[in-house]
Amino acid sequence: MVKRILLWVLAVFLALAAMIYQRSTGPTYEYKGYLEHGGEKHKYELLRSHETTEGAKIELPYFEGANYNASLHYKRYRTKDPVTSLDFQLDANKQFVAQLPVQPAAGKMEYFIIGSIDGKEFNIPEKGKDRIVLRYKDPVSNFILVPHVLMMIIVIIFGIRAGLSALFDHGSMRLWTMIAFLAMTIGGMILGPLVQKSAFGEYWTGFPFGGDFTDNKMLIMWVAWALALAIIGFKPKKKEKISRAAVLTAAVVMTVVYLIPHSMGGSTLDYDKVDKGIDPKEAIKTGAE
Predict the structure, then answer these.
(1) Which of 112, 121, 253, 103 has the alpha carbon at shortest distance from 177?
(2) Which residue, among 220, 147, 164, has the nearest Cα to 12 in the 3D structure?
(3) CA of residue 279 relative to chain centroid, distance
(4) Interior angle at CA 269, CA 76 and CA 97, nearest 5
């Protein structure tokens, strides 16, 4: 009993570590940093993903009484557009804000910020570093998104637990493998395409139709668990060496794939096609950029 409790604690810990790592490295999560004023650091979180319902509001901390100004500089991603500049303004909620123009789904804007606080200049990102890239997406219903996320959390927890069972407690290995595979099927292969369709207009943009890393990662994990389940079957075997190796391999594959930042190589609007009059819904590409 103690061993099984420790294995569950380890499984949850490893799953949380993998999710936190992915959350902190994905290209659509907030760009974070600090501005200094009055001897203190003030955190900012700049958007890198936004819904197409309105232009993304880029917010900075506001310093009352300071000689403070900032300007947002932006253009459409990977185009030869001239850079547009827009001053930050204090809004009714006392937020220091500048708003990017809204784009169609999968449209991206690249931007950077230049400003000064009491005569001390700052650049976000720092000079010489890549500009921040924000991608727009259509709204996704919580009735789809929430169960999708929950299923993927179940996959990583029970998948790691299955792998640990293969190493230390193979009596429960089949149950955790079946749960991981079922959650992967529902959350990844059914709800995942529904999320993709809502956000970017296509159910599947991975192999063999495109190069979307997220869809391809989903497929790799699903195949790994499907193969593991096919090998181990539903009844214990006299010799479990091959079964244990199959489950452990699936767990390792899943963990490695999970550590690849989320949304890399995802849907991107091809502005060259849009500028030629092609419908934005027909001008979305995927794959490495």
Answers:
(1) 253
(2) 164
(3) 26
(4) 40
Find the helix packing angle between 142-168 and 213-232, rounded to 10°: 40
Rama region for 78: left / alpha / beta (φ>0; ψ in -120 to 50; rest): left
Domain layout of the chain by residue ranges: 2-26+140-285, 31-137
Distant-in-sequence, close-in-space partners of 231: CB < 8 Å, separation ≥ 6:
242, 243, 246
| CA neighbours closer than 13 Å in the CB half-sphere of residue 166 | 24
pLDDT of 236 reads: 80
Structure tokens at 119: 């005569």
CATH topology assigned to domain 31-137: Immunoglobulin-like (2.60.40)
Determine if the pTM surpasses 0.90. Answer: no
HSE-up (13 A, CA, CB side) for residue 78: 12
Its sign, for the CA torsion 25, 27, 30, 35, is: positive
Cβ-based neighbour number of residue 107 at 10 Å: 24
Q: Where are the beta strands (DSSP E) in the chain?
A: 31-37, 40-46, 49-51, 57-60, 68-76, 84-87, 89-90, 96-99, 108-117, 120-124, 132-137, 268-269, 284-285
The strand pairing partners of 90, in sequence order, are 96
Residues of the chain with pLDDT under 70: 262-265, 287-289
Structure tokens at 74: 């932006």
Q: Residues with Cβ < 8 Å from 258, sequence gap 6 or more?
A: 18, 19, 22, 156, 217, 221
CA nearest neighbour of 81 among 60, 99, 103: 103
Check if the beta carbon of residue 250 is closer than 8 Å to that of residue 227. yes
134-172 confidence digits (pLDDT tens):
999 999 999 999 999 999 999 999 999 999 999 987 778
Collapse the DSSP code of 69 into the 3-class scheme (helix H, G, I; strand E, B; otherwise coil) and give the result.
strand
